[in-house]
Specification:
By secondary structure, the chain is mostly helical. It has helices at residues 8-37, 42-49, 52-85, 91-103, 106-109, 113-117, 120-127. The termini are far apart. The mean pLDDT is 84. InterPro entries: MetI-like_sf, Pept_M10A_Zn_BS, Sulph_transpt2. It is found in: Membrane.
Length: 130
């Protein structure tokens, strides 16, 4: 039984379409970011990048990344090994907890969490509109 993607021409078209769409989703935001960054000229961009606060923020980001990547690597490999090799009570719950960040976008889900959980009065108090 032949599938739709078995023909060489169809397979190349599907792969090409996937590559073009992936490139667009990756490159268009980068182009927009650089266009906005350089919209007022290179000198304004360089003045903002060479600002003391910006340099400290970049340094802090690099330090935190260098500290967290090895920790995530060790715990990620350990959890993957644990979940795939052993059967234990709570395994399905652990798998669910591991999958939640992939299923819920942090940009969509987390900002709405306080609005869903907090009473309206407390929300206004925190926002300074009470």
């Amino acid at each position: 039984m032949r599938r739709i993607g078995d023909a060489p021409l169809i397979r190349r078209l599907l792969i090409g379409t996937a590559l073009v769409l992936s490139a667009l989703f990756l490159l268009l935001p980068l182009v927009a970011i650089f266009a906005q960054a350089f919209s007022q000229g290179v000198m304004v961009f360089w003045a903002n990048v060479s600002n003391t606060f910006t340099l400290h923020a970049i340094g802090l980001t690099l330090v935190i990344a260098l500290l967290t990547i090895p920790v995530c690597l060790v715990f990620g490999v350990a959890l993957a090994w644990l979940v795939t090799r052993f059967s234990f009570p709570g395994r399905r719950i652990l798998q669910t907890l591991i999958d939640i960040p992939f299923a819920v976008s942090p940009r969509c889900g987390w900002p709405d969490l306080p609005a869903a959980l907090w009473p309206q009065r407390l929300d206004r108090l925190v926002a300074g509109r009470l």
